[in-house]
Amino acid sequence: MEQGRVPYQKILFVCVNTREPHETCCAHRESEAITAALKARVKELGFSRAVRVSKSGCQDLCARGPNVMVFPDYVWYHGVTQADVERIAQHAIRGLPDIPAAPLSACPS
Known about the structure:
Layout: E1 10-15, H1 31-44, E2 51-56, E3 67-71, E4 75-78, H2 85-93
Parallel strand pairs: 1-2
Antiparallel strand pairs: 1-3, 3-4
Helix pairs in contact: 1-2
């Protein structure tokens, strides 16, 4: 095992947990589409090397979802819709230096 520093300055965890059709969950409220929109917007803004948008399992806040948690800011957005994507993306990049768009080579292809 090796240890290193987290290669991102911010990580946005978007809950995409799925429950039974009759149960409340983030996946039933378009969290997959929100994840895709956040990823696309962060990339468009040129910050995909600094900000990671990741799917998460259950954040145990299903009734308030879709949920997005921003680390290391410890910010929780709940009841997120497509209309909130720009605000969340802008929060994620606020204060970050401009980063060149070259891809990271952390993951083998």
